[in-house]
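Notebook entry, structure prediction.
Reason for the run: the old model in the group folder had no record of what sequence produced it. Starting over properly, with the input documented here first.
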Amino acid sequence: MSKKINKKRQAYAQKQEKQGQNVVKWIFIALIILAIVFAVYMTSMYT
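New structure, fully documented this time:
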């Protein structure tokens, strides 16, 4: 029984880690897009 529970915990931990990496990746993508939009806005403001 203990081995079965450990396998489930390990599978759940791997799933959580994968989801966490996916969230971090999307946060970085969003920050890059916002930085580009901000740069375009600032350059268009002064021209």
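Summary: The longest helix spans residues 2-45.
The old model has been moved to the deprecated folder.
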